[in-house]
Amino acid sequence: MGINVGQRNLTNNSINKVEESAKLDLIITGQNIEVLPTVKDYIEKKFGKLDRHFQNINNTKVELSEQQTKSADERYRVQVTLDANGTLLRGEERAENLLTAIDKVVPVIDRQIEKYKGKLTRKGNKNGPSIKSKLDEEPAADIVRTKRFVMKPMSTEDAITQMELLGHDFFLFYNAETKEYNLLYARKDGKYSLIEPELQ
Fold first, then answer.
1. Among 46-50, 84-88, 125-129, whose mean pLDDT is lowest?
2. Taking 80 as the threshold, does the pLDDT of residue 113 lie above it?
3. Whether the Cβ atoms of residue 164 and residue 131 lie closer than 8 Å to each other
């Protein structure tokens, strides 16, 4: 059974395949989908020049997947994650066509970069908040995904910035001021709340 991506044809593959380009520091992964050279080249043309207008990008990870969904418009998912000196910028789009999903996520990432650059300019901070994450797909009981973080101490302000850049409504971080782990979350009124746990 083939996967229609315009004039190209991809073959289903249940084994994840990773293609890397050292020159562009671009990592392309496929879940339930084979990453053909034509698709790899297409992605490199779309994302290989991101570091030309933003030098802080350490690497770019593009995750492709085919999913069984009720809506054909969401069949293919493309998620792009940039590591900007430890700060993660992420964009995700879905479409019925793989190449269309790739095209749709490009402006999303561009907006994330511009948003991040604006925050660095306002703060006068070239490095920005630092946090690195790694996904571990090992299931345990009903837990289908485990997310592990390598945390660096940061201020509450930096935690808010990182949460907004990731597009999350909550964020766990190590507070540099209190030397404790805090949970930050966005309220419906547009403000933020901070949870400071206490051990008994």
1. 125-129
2. yes
3. no
Residue 9, beta-bridge partner list: 4
Q: How do residues 57-79 score in pLDDT, each as one tens digit? A: 888 999 999 888 778 788 899 99
pLDDT at 200: 55
The single-letter code of the amino acid at 183 is L
Residue ending a domain, choose from 104, 123, 142 = 123
- State the residue range of the domain holding 61: 2-123
Can you tell me the distance from the alpha carbon of 13 to that of 97, in angstroms, rounded to the nearest whole number? 17
Question: In this structure, are 119 and 138 located in the same domain?
Answer: no
At 135-154, the pLDDT tens digits run 334 444 567 777 776 778 99
Whether residue 200 lies inside any domain: the answer is no
The count of domains in the chain is 2
